[in-house]
Amino acid sequence: MTATLSQKVASFISVMTFSGVNTSGTNGAGSIGAVGNGNANSGAPTSTLVTQGNGSFVVGVGNDWDNAIARTPGTGQNLVGQYLAPVGDTYWVRMETSPTALSGTAVTINDIAPTGDRYNLSIVEIMAAAGGGTTGSISGTISPAASSSGATVTLSQNETTVATTMVPASGSTYSFINVASGTYTVTPSEIGFTFSPPSQSVTVSANPVTVPIFTATAASTYTISGSINPAASGSGATVTLSQNGTTVATTTIAASGTTFTFSSLANGAYTVTPSETGFTFNPPNSAVTVSGANVTIPVFTGITTSGGIQLLQKNVNGNEATGSQISAAFPSNNKLVFFDSQRFCGAASQHHNHRTRLGIRIFRRWVQSQIAIKTSPLTSGTCRIARAVQIRSH
User: Which of the 8 DSSP states describes residue 362?
Assistant: First the structure.
């Protein structure tokens, strides 16, 4: 092929031939499908089109008119050729490493580098012959049969899913038909199993291909367990186990019970969420990671939503002092006391001209108080109240 130019210039020509293309139309015009164009004053060269046929190739031609810099192709692409012109420009040709299996697929031709020059990039779809190039097939087996029943097998190309199929009940084989020529990855998956090898690469060239056997092995599983306190808030509560926003399992705590357990879990990150009418929970949920061992999560504390005063701990004594602070000691497994959703630790009081030690008592008098409020469970074992409660006659 010869190109006749109107003058002497730095130039670059690349010639490519294809077989199995659509030769219909005038001078084989049927071989040309979708086209795309990209350009920018600065950026990584990129252009995208949506394929119009099965089994087509996408090819791109570009120029960088700022610098003569070697190209770094994007994923799933080959650099056919490039010319670093002495005048400071770059010319290149790029194409997919394998055909795009299905029509309606968005295909991008791009460079990862350079990213700071002005560019033009035009791409074109080379259409496959009638039938879309879907003349091959892929089939295989998962062993043993008892482990393969219900397994999902995924066919992908350039990290994009092309098709999926499921091994039928009591079966062990799978197949993909009408597959365009190209290189693919076959990957089996099933909850509770691992596979050897995890995936396999296979090339279709207008022929049936059999993938070597996958061997399924039951994966080790583990448990997540926990509890809800007090028992009144745990009994009958529903606990949900989720992963990546999808519910994996639910369980209901038995009457008069406080504990729950999820079994047969694979390694991974999960979220545990309790719920029950009339209660909120602290924390509202708990993130947990299973990694080769059973896991027990921290206790959930149930809080009634009915309002009013709820006493969760009693028999707490305070000591009156002459200073501006008094202290009350709690055991390390302290339970909180709630007053209209505000947490407090205890109280001591003064009544005008005489002093007395008081528990929590209710007076039909005007009470003005300042109480040290705790916003989380006690860990030090001691609660300090900044000032005593003042009781005034009204």
Answer: -
